[in-house]
Amino acid sequence: RAKGLSERVVMLHHALKNALIPVTTVLGPIFAIIITGSMIVEQIFAIPGIGKYFVTSVMNRDYPVIMGITLFFGALIVIANLVVDITYGFLDPRIRYE
What we know:
The protein is an all-alpha fold.
């Protein structure tokens, strides 16, 4: 505010950017918990989906399906963490990617 900026500009450009860094840090693990937790929710509530298919294939020992779904979930988690890391570059000016 000493620069003559309005309260809104100060909040959006300075305070919000700094406040979003810890939130972004938590988003990667939360996304992983949501993705892996969907398997249990789909099984309990009998919702057709990839999680229920995974649990059924584990019970039937369908190894190619187990490996494929594990690879798919792993790729989703890697992509989510990549998005979090790229978001750090936008939020924190000290972090530079070459």
